[in-house]
Specification:
seven-stranded antiparallel β-sheet, 7 strands
């Protein structure tokens, strides 16, 4: 599985994330698990390499702004 490590923690783990999109390539992260600093996904490593940030959309159970952008520290297999 591919692991995305964030610079700062997301506001919630994968159970409350509706979508996560890797930027600048605009690839939707699939099979998301884990959190809040490290997330595992089913995307192939080459599709996410070079990601500098992720846009996160939370489900309606998360209070506050339903969107968050977080910088990516690393993407590894």
């Amino acid at each position: 599985m591919t692991t995305i490590t964030l610079v700062q923690a997301a506001r919630h783990d994968a159970t409350r994330i509706h979508t996560m999109t890797a930027r600048p390539m605009n690839v939707q992260v699939t099979g998301l698990a884990g959190g809040a600093i490290q997330f595992q996904c089913t995307n192939a490593l080459p599709t996410l390499q070079g990601a500098t940030s992720v846009d996160i959309a939370y489900d309606a159970t998360v209070r506050g702004d339903p969107h968050q952008t977080v910088q990516v520290s690393s993407v590894q297999a």
